[in-house]
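Hi L.,

As promised, Phosphomannomutase:
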Amino acid sequence: MNRLKLRSVVFQLCCSIMTCRANTICLFDVDGTLTQPRQKAQNETLDFLLKKLKPLSHLAIVSGSDMNKVAEQLGGEKVLEQFDFVFPENGLVAYKNGKLFEKKSIIDHMGEDKIQTFINYCLQHLSTVTLPFKRGNFIEFRTGLINVSPVGRSCTQAERDAFEKYDKEHKVRQALIDKLNRDLPDIGLTYSIGKDSPFLCSLLPPTLCSQPF
């Protein structure tokens, strides 16, 4: 379904079910939903959300990226004022009406010893893997997750796409996940392979925001 048709369907659905804005919230992912992975949102997409949908419903953004990356993709820091809720880093950081109201850290969940055990394990494994190319920034530590990239986050969009195709055949990311589950079963993390992305997985504790909206 193309984005124009999707917007039409969402708008019609919202009009049919929403009778009170105060009791309704629509949540949108960023990469792969509002934008292409790591790309900026189109103006028509933002106009639809803010001019058509916001009068009918509270709007929330949910992303695995940190706040800086979310802002970069959705028009700058004003995103905090334009959307009622913003949940970067898989919801472990939460903003309401432009103000931070909840924040949890993966360090608090795991502790420094486990963090270093995990990072060292991943780096050691990746050092033994030969790929068509490698760049830099293989592990990115965030407040609420750890992002691991076998080819490095410094890769270009074209390299990202090339690795995605390569990984579908060679299962590089899944192989590392399987090893982590086997060798570090008590590390306290869950894993997911990113959509249209070279990044191995998002790693997050099984707790989100504790405060009510």
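The domain at 108-208 is CATH 3.30.1240.20 (Hypothetical Protein, Haloacid Dehalogenase-like Hydrolase; Chain: A; domain 2).

Thanks again for sending the construct details.

K.
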